[in-house]
UniProtKB/TrEMBL annotation:
Pfam families: STAS (PF01740), Sulfate_transp (PF00916)
Domain spans labelled STAS: 397-443
Coiled coil: none
InterPro entries (UniProt xref): S04_transporter_CS, SLC26A/SulP_dom, SLC26A/SulP_fam, STAS_dom, STAS_dom_sf
GO cellular component annotations of the record: membrane
GO molecular function annotations of the record: secondary active sulfate transmembrane transporter activity
Chain ranges passing through the membrane: 84-102, 155-173, 180-197, 217-236, 295-314, 320-339, 351-378
Organism per entry: Solirubrobacter phytolaccae
Localization, UniProt: Membrane
This protein's name: SulP family inorganic anion transporter
Membrane topology: Multi-pass membrane protein
Keywords for the protein's UniProt record, in alphabetical order: Membrane, Transmembrane, Transmembrane helix
């Protein structure tokens, strides 16, 4: 219990200020971030399968939420957030019941790397107005950046100085075990309360427990695609963080049960005005010292105490401090190392990651992910349609990969180009379909090393041909 208590309090020191900052990414009041660090976290602690996973919200989920909320009028922002969380929760629950945990595999490593880098740049661009104290408009990365730069003549130097000092402090504290986010918030509140700088403050933060809210039924249709993207990303980020932090002597999180736990966390969070929730790697890493899931419940209890007794303190928190917190978090998403590792294995993967990143920067977060997934699928189809056909030193021709209706004609032409009377090594062909079996029928006697499925299918084709020949002979 002692280890769980220490882990829970330490994680709260990270989660509470981060959640407040992430709420601003979505364009929502900071108390919504506190609600997200309470309800979803508590529900996951009861139902989740990962010992250390800390489920509140993440910068990427906040960005996805912000992109969706921006499509509705400002007075519907909170209703849209509630609807998104409930929809995402419902989709995750349904996926868990249907045992669709394998869907996480549809986000490839290159797409995830490009998505994170693009989202990091997009979030960072969106904070330029706050950290410089200037007006900012626009939706895309380029529009946000152009807007901020066009107002550089109006820069608020006290705001910029505070933001720069906060960023420098956060990077310096990263090398220590001190919770940099908590220190930054504390220092910012001192500066704001003392009136040392002429900067914009957060203002009144409502305290107390979150009250239940109903979804806006009229927004279900328009927000459903965004909710599906949020649900998928919540699951992908959570399962990745849970697997990364799992110790060698403990099982990895169960994907299908995680869908249920995350779905319940999002659904309950939506009822109580939370952002869509998922597991973040930064707070999960802090929570790794926990022995059991009780640590997550203790983090939620610290958040509850904050809501009940400490919200008045945040009124003097400068907006520049929150902007700096988000900026540092966004920069952490922009990593070149994954691209370098992918490039060492396959250059096409780097192109796929860069395409996803460009999609996020130009089209938006959800659209960028869809571009990456679509490009991944097209790349897979291209690879399947071009199986390797090579001549071995022994003179045999080897085919590598599955053969089906879309590639078998190309493979047959290539084989006959190499040798009009080939001897085929089929040991690397583990599956064929009916079309492939019919097309390759005349080459079947020249095949060696057939695997069970192709051998059985070709046998049936040959039996059919023999039966047809016998029938013709009998009729004559």
């Amino acid at each position: 219990m002692r280890k769980d208590a220490l882990a829970g309090v330490a994680t709260a020191a990270v989660v509470i200020p981060q959640s407040m900052a992430y709420a601003t990414i979505a364009g929502l009041p900071v108390e919504v971030g506190l609600y997200t660090a309470l309800v979803p976290l508590l529900v996951y602690a009861l139902l989740g399968t990962s010992r250390a996973l800390s489920v509140s919200t993440t910068s990427t989920l906040a960005a996805l939420t912000g992109a969706a909320v921006a499509t509705v009028p400002p007075d519907q922002a909170m209703a849209a957030t509630t609807t998104l969380a409930l929809l995402a929760g419902g989709l995750l629950l349904a996926a868990g019941v249907l045992r669709l945990g394998f869907l996480a595999d549809f986000i490839s490593h290159p797409v995830l790397a490009g998505f994170k880098a693009g989202t990091g740049l997009l979030i960072a661009a969106g904070q330029l107005g706050k950290v410089l104290g200037v007006e900012q408009t626009g939706d895309s990365f380029f529009a946000k950046t152009r807007s901020a730069l066009s107002h550089l003549g109006d820069i608020s130097w006290p705001t910029a100085a505070l933001a720069a000092a906060t960023v420098a402090g956060l990077f310096a504290l990263k090398r220590t075990k001190i919770p940099g986010a908590l220190v930054a918030v504390g220092a910012g509140i001192v500066v704001g309360a003392a009136g040392l700088l002429d900067v914009a403050l957060t203002g009144t933060v409502p305290g107390g427990l979150p009250t239940p809210a109903a979804p806006d039924l009229g927004l279900i249709g328009p927000l459903l695609p965004a909710a599906a993207g949020i649900a998928l990303m919540s699951f992908v980020e959570s399962i990745a963080a849970g697997r990364a932090i799992a110790h060698s002597d403990e099982p990895e999180p169960n994907a299908d049960r995680e869908l249920i736990a995350l779905g319940a966390a999002n659904f309950a969070g939506g009822v109580f005005r939370s952002l869509p929730a998922g597991g973040g790697l930064s707070q999960t890493a802090v929570n790794d010292t926990a022995e059991t899931k009780r640590a997550g419940a203790l983090t939620a209890l610290v958040t509850l105490a904050t809501l009940l007794f400490l919200t008045s303190v945040f009124a003097d928190l400068p907006q520049a401090t929150l902007g700096a917190l988000v900026l540092v978090s966004a920069v952490g998403l922009i990593q070149l190392e994954p691209f370098r590792q992918i490039g060492e294995i396959h250059r096409r993967g780097v192109a796929l990651g860069l395409l996803t990143m460009l999609g996020v920067l130009t089209l938006g977060v959800l659209q960028g992910v869809l571009v990456g997934v679509l490009a991944s699928m097209l790349s897979l189809v291209h690879a399947l349609n071009h199986p390797q056909v090579t001549r071995l030193e022994t003179g045999e021709i080897k085919v590598v990969g599955p053969l089906y209706f879309a590639n078998v004609q190309r493979v047959k032409r290539r084989v006959l180009e190499l040798d009009p009377e080939p001897v085929l090594d089929m040991s690397a062909v583990h599956g064929i379909d009916v079309t492939a079996a019919l097309v390759l029928e005349e080459l079947a006697p020249r095949m060696q090393g057939l695997n069970p499925q192709p051998r059985e299918l070709l046998r049936r084709v040959q039996s059919r041909a023999n039966a047809a020949a016998n029938s013709r002979s009998t009729s004559k």
